[in-house]
Amino acid sequence: MTDEPKRDLRAEKRFWRREVAATDKKKGESLSDKLLQWPLRISFFILTFVFNTIPLAVGMEIGAFIGSLGYYVSPGRRRIALENLLLAFGHSVSLKERKRIARASFANFGRVGIEFIRFPKNSKERLAHHIEIFGQENFTYTASLGKGNLALSAHLGNFELIAATANIMGLGKNHLMGRKIKPPEVDRFVSGLRKSCGVDTIPSKNGIRTVLRKLRAKEGVGVVLDQNMRRGIGIFVNFFGVAASTTPALALMAIRRKVPILPVFMIRCGQTSKHHMVFLPQIPTHESGDRDKDTMITTQRMSWVVEEVIRRYPEQWFWFHRRWRCRPPEEEKPSPVKELEEKPAYFQEISEYLDKVGPPQRFNVGPKT
């Protein structure tokens, strides 16, 4: 058994302690950032005006076209997407089908962009027309605990709609924790669109104080668990059977603060602007008294849930992200803990719950062969 996972966890703990103690010092913008500021502002103004003026259906077609175009004009991202699909599914999915999934993934994110630009137009009536909520009883239960909630999600479907919909539909006050986007003008634009729906963007760096404050106020904070983390920050857990560097922050906060972990996903219905907002049953944290072991097992449980949803809706995940970029030393086993050898019984409950939501649009991708 290797000690590497424990070293990673200790590094993560030191990192978060520094974040809590640090003052939020804002760095000045570079010259290139300043030069880009006004061209970007003008471009965003034009895009916002145009796509908030034309009918949504037309905008969605344009978004899908732009996204699909990205598949052809960005060979680097296309290669990453196809490599990731082969890594995740092996040869159980043909090359032709992997290419189709990759193209659909690019197209989906084009649609997400158009819907995101139209955020200022969101209203309770508009969202009720486009979004059907499943599993609200799971949200109600975690809310009744009075500790806020850590919403587990992924870059799948239209993930940006999750916190916005919850706020507008009266499901408490909800926010999003994520990385800052470069250049800064793009980050301001994205944060502004989220803010139009009452969603605060909490930066991953220096943001832990804000997260804890939101939780104390019984509010929700959304965290995506499907991004690659650099060495010393992430821990390695299984994701599609491959070691993936994953943030343990969500598990650490849930264990330390006794905050419920609520999986929630915004799944697109086919190629339309209709969505299913799905609240899954709360993921139990592992409580043994061994913080490193508990964090590892809890993070693995969350990773399994994210993987299960992606397997059902592979066209809606961002395969062009280098999810497996950071590799463990000598490709060691990511989870050398006995409790991680098999999925716990509660996972079957989550799988059955997803069955009730509806069948996948095209197919359900099983384990790779």
Structure description:
- The chain has helices spanning 4-21, 31-53, 56-73, 75-89, 95-117, 124-130, 136-144, 161-168, 184-195, 208-216, 249-257, 291-312, 345-357; strands at 131-134, 149-153, 174-178, 201-203, 220-224, 235-239, 242-246, 261-268, 275-279.
- The chain is globular, with a radius of gyration of 20 Å.
- Strand 6 (235-239) and strand 7 (242-246) form a beta hairpin.
- The chain contains 13 helices and nine strands.
- It has a domain at 4-23 and 123-357.
- With 369 residues, the chain is an alpha/beta fold.
- The strands form two sheets. The protein has a seven-stranded mixed β-sheet, sandwiched between helices. Strands 6-7 form a two-stranded antiparallel sheet.
Intertermini distance: 27 Å
Q: List how many beta strands DSSP finds.
A: 9
Low-confidence stretches: 1-7, 19-26
The helix/strand order is HHHHHHEHEHEHEHEEEHEEHH
What's the tally of helices?
Answer: 13
Helix content: 40-55%
Shape label? globular
Strands side by side in the biggest sheet: 1-9-8-2-5-3-4
Question: Structural class of the helix and strand makeup?
Answer: alpha/beta
Q: How large a portion of the residues is in β-strands, by DSSP E?
A: 5-15%
Mean pLDDT: 87
| Main sheet properties | 7 strands, mixed
Radius of gyration: 20 Å
